[in-house]
Design brief:
This is Adenosine deaminase. The chain has 15 helices and eight strands. By secondary structure, the chain is α/β, with parallel strands linked by helices. Helix 9 runs parallel beside helix 10. It is globular, with a radius of gyration of 18 Å. The chain binds 2'-deoxyinosine (2ND) and zinc ion.
Length: 328
C-alpha cells in the first residue's frame, strides 16, 4: 500500500503538524505549553477513540495553531506535511487551512498564505509531489471574515491557491448565511468544496450543492440516511472527500463495518479517500486505504478506479492530471 501512488484531496494543515515540531517551535519561540514531554504533547493533539463528537474533535487543534503564528513556523509545518505525504508516495495533495487562525501575532491573511505557499513550493521542489491550496473559512467566525479570506486570497489564484472551503463546527442549515461569500468566490475563479453532512444531516449536502455550487463535499457521509441528498450527489457527480478514521472519531459512524464508502463506490458515486487530519487522527493515507481495503475486500482494480476518480476530482491543471494518470 505504501508504494502505490496516492492522491489526497482533504487534508488540514493545522490537523497535520508533527507533535515533535509543535514542541520544537514552542521551545524556539518561547511559547508556553502545558508540558514539554513529547508523549504528553501527543496526547494533547491526538483525539482519543472515545471522542464523542465533531465539537470535541475540534478542540484538538488549539496547540498546533498556537505554534503556527509566524512566517517561519507556518512555512516549516507546510514543508513537513508535504514531506510526510511524499514519503508515503502521495503524488498530489490539496492542503487546506484557515488563514484567519494564524493572525494572532499580527500576520496578515496574505502573509499567512504566502508562508504556506513557500513551504509547499520548497517541498515540491525537493520531492516528486505536486500540491495546491484550499482556503478555509471557519463557520464559527463571521460571514465578513469569510468574505475577507475570499477577497485577500484571490490574488493567489493560479499561483497555488485553487479553492475555497467552509469548515469548523457544522449546524443544520449553515449554508444560506455564506451564499453571497461563496458566490463571489466562484466569480473570482475559486473552485468550491464544502464540509457538509458530517455532523449534521444530508440536507446540508443538498444546500452546499444547490446554494453554494459545491463541486466537492468534505465527508458527506450522512447522505447515506437521506435519499434526496444521495440522489443529488449521484446525479450531479459531485465528489465526496471521505475520511474514515476521522468519521470514526467524530462518531459520524460507530464502527468501520458501518462505513458507507465501499457501497457508495459500488453504486458509482465519485468517492475519494483522505486523512482529514494526520496528527489529530494519528493516521496517514496508507492507513486509511488499508482500513478500507481490509474491511471491504477492496481489490487493486478498485483502488485504481478510486485513484482515477481522485484525479478527475482534483482542482489541478490538465498537465498535472495527465501526469497523475500516467502514474497508475
Ligand atoms: O472534519 C472536519 N470538519 C470540520 N472542520 C474541521 C475538520 N477537520 C478540521 N476542521 C477545522 C479545524 C481546523 O482548525 C480548521 C482549519 O483547518 O478546520
Ligand atoms: Zn476536514
Amino acid at each position: 500500500m505504501r508504494k502505490l501512488p496516492k492522491i489526497e484531496l482533504h487534508c488540514h494543515l493545522d490537523g497535520s503538524v508533527r507533535a515533535e515540531t509543535i514542541l520544537d517551535i514552542a521551545r524556539k519561540e518561547n511559547l508556553e505549553l502545558p508540558s514539554y514531554n513529547i508523549n504528553d504533547i501527543k496526547k494533547l493533539v491526538q483525539v482519543p477513540i472515545d471522542c464523542t463528537s465533531l465539537d470535541e474533535y475540534l478542540k484538538k487543534f488549539d496547540l498546533a495553531n498556537k505554534v503556527m503564528q509566524t512566517k517561519e513556523s507556518i512555512k516549516r509545518v507546510t514543508f513537513e506535511l508535504v514531506e510526510d505525504a511524499a514519503n508515503e508516495n502521495v503524488k498530489y495533495i490539496e492542503i487546506r487551512f484557515a488563514p484567519m487562525l494564524h493572525m494572532k501575532k499580527g500576520l496578515s491573511i496574505k502573509e499567512v498564505i504566502q508562508s504556506v505557499l513557500k513551504g509547499m513550493n520548497q517541498a515540491c521542489e525537493k520531492y516528486e509531489i505536486k500540491a495546491n491550496l484550499i482556503l478555509g473559512c471557519m463557520r464559527n467566525m463571521s460571514v465578513e471574515d469569510a468574505e475577507l479570506v475570499v477577497k485577500e486570497g484571490k490574488e493567489f489564484l493560479g499561483k497555488g491557491v485553487v479553492a475555497i472551503d467552509l469548515c469548523g463546527p457544522e449546524v443544520e442549515g449553515f449554508a444560506t448565511k455564506y451564499k453571497k461569500a461563496i458566490e463571489s468566490a466562484r466569480s473570482y475563479g475559486y473552485r468550491v468544496t464544502i464540509h457538509a453532512g458530517e455532523a449534521a444531516s444530508g440536507k446540508n449536502v443538498i444546500d452546499a450543492i444547490n446554494l453554494l455550487g459545491a463541486e466537492r463535499i468534505g465527508h458527506g457521509i450522512n447522505i447515506k440516511d437521506m435519499k434526496e441528498a444521495y440522489d443529488l450527489v449521484k446525479r450531479t457527480n459531485v465528489t465526496l472527500e471521505m475520511c474514515p478514521t476521522s468519521n470514526l472519531h467524530t462518531k459520524a459512524i460507530d464502527k468501520i463495518s458501518d462505513y458507507p464508502f465501499f457501497n457508495f463506490y459500488k453504486d458509482d458515486l465519485s468517492v475519494t479517500l483522505n486523512t482529514d487530519n494526520r496528527t489529530v487522527s494519528d493516521v496517514d493515507l496508507t492507513n486509511e486505504i488499508s482500513l478500507v481495503k481490509d474491511n471491504f475486500n477492496m481489490s487493486e482494480e478498485d483502488y485504481k478506479r478510486i485513484y482515477l476518480n481522485s484525479v478527475d476530482a482534483t482542482f489541478a491543471d490538465e498537465d498535472t492530471k495527465m501526469w497523475l494518470k500516467s502514474l497508475i
